[in-house]
Specification:
Layout (H helix, E strand, L loop, with lengths): L3 E7 L2 H8 L5 E9 L8 H5 L6 E8 L6 H11 L7 E2 L2 E2 L5 E5 L2 H16 L10 E4 L4 E2 L7 H4 L4 H17 L7
Parallel strand pairs: 6-7
Antiparallel strand pairs: 1-3, 1-6, 2-3, 2-8, 4-5
Helix pairs in contact: 1-6, 3-4
Length: 178
């Protein structure tokens, strides 16, 4: 097994990390920043919309257990891919929906999944998720890593992250780690 990498954005990185950490075949999930113009961005600068980066997760996974397509299908269910630069009360380009592909095959898979979800009218509005080449990855500050696991009762975690984790657990129970 040669591990593969997926880099995805769908609002707050705490939500995505908390979900993918529980998924079979996922080896590790790292919160960070990608897609901006500033070298070594900080959380404060990214949240202030000053860098162009998206909050994202870098997922290392075993493609023999979970496919890239399955990772994307989960992404499109746990966040709203139809709102431009926003997820709920989180507004700004840092919260955009984006797939940062690492090779041409990932790009093709992403485009096929988006086309299928649009064709099947999974959402009442079209998907606006960007599909763009992965650029330089910047790992977020240490206090952001495993944030939900360490702070499950923090306000944002109980109001926003927890419900997304529960939705994933309900809809994708067969994909949960033992």
């Amino acid at each position: 097994m040669k591990p593969d990498v997926a880099t995805l954005a769908g609002g707050c990185f705490w939500c995505l990390e908390a979900v993918y950490d529980q998924m079979k075949g996922v080896i590790s999930v790292e919160s960070g920043y990608i897609g901006g113009q500033v070298d070594r961005p900080t959380y404060e600068a990214v949240c202030g919309g000053q860098t162009g980066h998206a909050e994202a997760v870098r997922i290392t996974f075993n493609p023999d257990i979970v496919t890239y397509q399955e990772l994307l299908e989960v992404l499109f269910v746990i966040h709203d891919p139809t709102t431009l630069n926003r997820q709920g009360h989180d507004i700004g380009t840092q919260y955009r929906s984006a797939i940062f592909y690492h090779n041409p095959e990932q790009k093709k898979v992403a485009e096929r999944v988006i086309e299928r979800f649009n064709r099947e009218k999974i959402y009442s509005s079209p998907i606006v998720t960007e599909v763009v080449p992965a650029g330089t990855w910047f790992e977020a500050e240490p206090y952001h890593q495993e944030y939900f696991a360490r702070n499950p009762f923090q306000g944002y975690c109980t109001a926003v992250v927890g419900p997304k984790v529960m939705k994933f657990r309900k809809l994708f129970s067969a994909k949960l780690k033992p």
